[in-house]
């Protein structure tokens, strides 16, 4: 059975009433849900950053370890070369070994330099890790507090919200798909969530612009769906009590 325009408008008006009540519940929570989401995103960001820092520290420590090992290897070679110098047969062999000793001494200096650089970077990176951990702990504490606040507000309105959501689901199925899509589009763009309004005191209940008497008469008849020529909201009825 096809619904009349009057029935369609009544269903839309009831759906708007339910959505407005749900909006009021959300307003009570204020920015808390968004603040909780932002804090959760911050925590994920800090944890990702910490993971990156720790990998960098690990890589630097490995580099410092390699340079220290390279220094030890050069020191062993120098000891061996000096022992060989005691058994050389001529000056040419002595000079050749001396050059090898000099080369390994340079390698030791280079390894020490690279070790110092790596250890300095490790120190700075660990300071970043400490600062990031401090910020992460602060965010976790903030999140704990905000979640507790949100849980209190949510628990206070839980039953009412659950009932409204169930009722909304039932009402929404009674609104034809084309109208429902238009309703949701207007609702999203309206700013205050009002997509379906009544004419009150001769004006649109959404934007408060005057609705001409003849147009009000058409709205009262409910033979066609009328929208406000100023804001595009659906004008479902005329509130006679507010005249």
CATH fold name of the largest domain: Helix Hairpins
Q: Strand-and-helix sequence, N→C? A: HHHHEEHEE
User: How does the helix and strand content classify structurally?
Assistant: mainly alpha
CATH class of the largest domain: Mainly Alpha
The main β sheet shows up as: 4 strands, mixed
Residue fraction in strands: 5-15%
In DSSP terms, counting alpha (H) and pi (I) runs of 4 or more, how many helices?
Answer: 5
* Mean of pLDDT: 94
Number of domains: 2
- The outline comes out as rod-shaped
Q: Share of helix among residues? A: over 70%
Could you tell me the radius of gyration in angstroms? 38 Å
Order of strands across the main sheet: 2-1-4-3
Describe the protein's architecture and organization.
The protein has two domains: 1-29 and 176-243, Helix Hairpins; 31-173, Helix Hairpins. The protein is 77% helix and 6% strand. It has five helices and four strands. It has helices at residues 5-29, 32-85, 91-174, 177-190, 213-221, and strands at 196-200, 203-204, 226-227, 234-238. Strands 2-1-4-3 form a four-stranded mixed sheet. The longest helix is centred in the middle third of the chain and has 84 residues, at 91-174. The two termini are 35 Å apart.
Briefly summarize what is shown.
With 243 residues, the chain is mainly α. The protein has five helices and four strands; from the N terminus they run ααααββαββ.
